[in-house]
């Protein structure tokens, strides 16, 4: 039987761990999806269980290799960032994988800022808002300062995508998309590690930097397979768009976080933008990507539960609420929905429209931060909110004069990681239609027209 050539991608999210097999046209031909139990670090804070993660990586790939009808030609990884695995000379983790939401000692943080130009200057040079443990460089600094004896045993500090790659290859490395993801490690002006990383003797534990398309042989069930270095998930999700569209665009990638990404804006971050959670990522080809973040997916889930409880509905009902244009005239000025009294709404539909209006108003201001100074006419929205008609219609009303599209990219982060290795595992050009677009015209213009 002729086997179909495929690439395997391990897609490691905070909640779901997945494995995908993509064929030559980048269609998913196999998928595995699991949720792994969390464990706790030495302080009792929840964190990823590295033992369970290692078992998933090896078991899922071994299963993929055993599938009839497919030939796994390459492996890559996409994973969440802001998390470091500290390994010793034998490749064994020395600590838990600390949660990026773990509290951070203010005295230690302030000492670092004071030594290196103050909070504002430090954040601007590293294109990283001051986010405590979400700045993975500060996690590394904390380990060295608080546990110096343990730090001397650290051979390499690997971001999570690179650790998963290391499990297969035994070759430690660093990747520009992980280093450039609000880590506070990278100097965006000098395009190198920031001076503080050198001065605090941290650069020596960072793995050698590898290009996104560079592979080394990994081993699965005794078989050697070309394996990529891994990519930060937000940067991986941008790859299909960069490959398909040449005209400038902004991508709003929605989920728990809603991240506005503009790969066509290289203006330096200002102090004001940093204060509003604006930052820079680095694309897989090392280009700065101006970005702004909102916690909208989390807020949506929390407030939908509140609306459902108040109006005696099931939360699942709000997965498919139709847009009612007439309600646009009833909307209160955008604000914090959590502070609104639900008794003031005549129906759950009215309350839900107001919730989305509040979220879209915040989204407009967040996205505007990355639009300024860049010639962009198109906005693409992928993820959960791209499937939400109320959100998309209201977003189109806010961005008048721009083209707004819901973009459907099956498994965008995993697909991006697969595309980064395109030339490694197959010949020929990329497929032309990686992304499906649905246009959303301004509903106010439709009403007036």
From TrEMBL:
Pfam families: FGGY_C_2, FGGY_N
Domain of life: Bacteria
Protein's UniProt name: FGGY family carbohydrate kinase
Gene source species: Chitinophaga caseinilytica
Family in the record: Belongs to the FGGY kinase family.
Domain Carbohydrate kinase FGGY N-terminal: 7-196
Keywords: Kinase, Transferase
Start and end residues of each Carbohydrate kinase FGGY C-terminal domain: 247-421
Coiled coil: none
GO molecular function terms listed in the Swiss-Prot or TrEMBL record: kinase activity
